[in-house]
Predict the structure.
Amino acid sequence: MKGYISLMRPLNAIMASLGTIIGGIIARESLSALYFYRLYIAMATVFLVLMAGNVLNDYFDADVDRINHPKRPIPSGQISRASARVLAIVLFATAVVVSVFTFNLIQVIIAIIAILLLITYEWKAKALGLTGNIIISLLVGLIFVYGSLSIRLSYLVLILSVMAFLANLAREIVKDVEDVRGDVNRVTLPKKIGKGLSLVASAVFIVIAVSLSPIPYLFFGWKIFYVFVVAISDILFIASVFFSFHDQTVGQNLIKVAMIFGLIAFLVGSSI
Amino acid sequence: MKGYISLMRPLNAIMASLGTIIGGIIARESLSALYFYRLYIAMATVFLVLMAGNVLNDYFDADVDRINHPKRPIPSGQISRASARVLAIVLFATAVVVSVFTFNLIQVIIAIIAILLLITYEWKAKALGLTGNIIISLLVGLIFVYGSLSIRLSYLVLILSVMAFLANLAREIVKDVEDVRGDVNRVTLPKKIGKGLSLVASAVFIVIAVSLSPIPYLFFGWKIFYVFVVAISDILFIASVFFSFHDQTVGQNLIKVAMIFGLIAFLVGSSI
């Protein structure tokens, strides 16, 4: 049991499914028990897809993990690769079945597309560097849209999704610069165009994300209160650009913290 | 520079100062630029106190870290113990000076009390097990009150603080059960009363925290929406109780995730 939990990484999956709820909360208008029902089902779907993705990650990384993470369930021999594959398939299938209970065809289709993207990522795209970074960042952005769809597709959630996509992409690139020595079987962006240019690309994505942040205030009638809160996130994002050039570990962690502040700004801004 | 940043752990301090903003947001009534000014100053104070605390932690743990974390700035010889002590004192002093700019005597006094508690904790109380757990959990609860005081002392923020105190205390105890083998120079609760009774105590704190969660709905007129969101947090807290008895690593991490969901429920609930 402990091996299977370690394989599915439920905590990591819970954190991601939180994004679904946040998307739904930002998109809310009038709220009924039905919307909550749908939102909970969407959340459960994201949770199952993420757990399946985590299992798949260990399944495909079994060889590399024998050196890097010898205590993980598969390299340590606790769980066979075949069992892990069955578990991933069962979780993916359950996710699709659960998503049907949203009674929302678009949400079912998106769940299936997300699953296919995730399998592509783990199977092939991870090794492709930037392409892999883009796929995983698209999936991160999609989580908010998915929650929003339990109610309606909100433009505000789309802006949040684009910002999350850009920030996550920037962070993936900074992480690839951080790991450039250890990455032997991945053709990452810094390996192709060098560390300096990669960090410049990452900085450009951050700057675009930051410059999108006043939109809810400028065009959607959000109160100035939102600007005060999102300013903290923007300052952290800009700081992350400067730190990334000197210390990628601090830089990528700062992007993560800035993203959390940004989420809080959206939650608060949408509610006042 | 890198050594000093590693000593101050700014990311960890940013996360804590986030709690100040959340306290201020929940307590808000009418909002003016003055309140934001005060809230930012309070946030800066918490940030500086936390960084000073992190430096102090490395200062007092230098001997233990020679074995457990040999690459940390002090054991690796990058920064001397004397320099670390000076840095901690400068940061604490700066925090007090900054807190004066809230122009709020209560906030200045609380900052000083928090600093004294933190020094006591790092110096002596950490080794005392439960007493140390209580001090650190009090400080966690205090962060929200501190932000709230930039506006007014809100009963709702007090409830959140009590819940955060209880959940954090429960988590500290589960962590002490997790580390019971490695802890040689700390007389923790599980060492005094055993693992089983410690986990029961932790479960009691969680159950009290969960049973406080409907108060904003029952007595403060918050919408049923809040109950839907806080229910997720409550379910995770209850799940953490069951997991803690089998796997303390999963249990204490689940408490952390449940706390994040609980914060989101308060943010959303206070805003609708």
